[in-house]
Amino acid sequence: MNRLNPLHLIILLLVIIVFLFFQLSSVKNELQEEKVAYHKSELIAKELLSYKKLYGDKKRIERSLKKILSQRSLKKANLQIEKKRDGMKISAKAIDLYALNSLMTKLFNGAYLIKSIEIKAIDDKTAKLKLEITW
After folding, report:
1. What are the boundaries of each domain within the chain?
2. DSSP-assigned letter for residue 66
3. Which secondary structure element, helix H or strand E, spans residue 96, and what is its range?
């Protein structure tokens, strides 16, 4: 039986150590990339949760819409309000532009999911409105 040369053993061990070192560095890089991806997804999840709290609170949306629709300028507009399980439809056959501007300003400045909106001018002072808000 031949004897093993110690120099061959040392070279083999060095090659194995160098190989393991490169493997370890590549795994460290992958770990860093995964940490960055995890932090990005964590930020997205927090942002989605805040959006859900803002747009998903049905009671808050209903209360604020009721408050907006009970304003004096909008009571004169003769709005037809149809409440549904998943939203609300607001329509008016003839709404004056001042009331329409007031309503649109309040809706666009608030946090409402407007599914559809249709405004058609009837004449210089009135318009037809169809609006659907969901929650």
Report:
1. 1-55, 58-134
2. H
3. strand 87-96
Q: H helices then E strands: how many in the chain?
A: 4, 4
Q: Summarize the chain as % helix, strand, coil (round to 5).
A: 60, 25, 20
Q: By the 8 A CB rule, do 87 and 132 touch? A: yes
Specify the pairing of strand 80-83 against strand 113-121: unpaired
62 vs 123: CA distance, rounded Å: 32
User: And the tokens for 118?
Assistant: 């249709």
Q: Is the pTM higher than 0.90? A: no
Under 8 Å between Cβ of 119 and 128: yes
87-100 pLDDT, tens digit each:
889 898 988 888 88
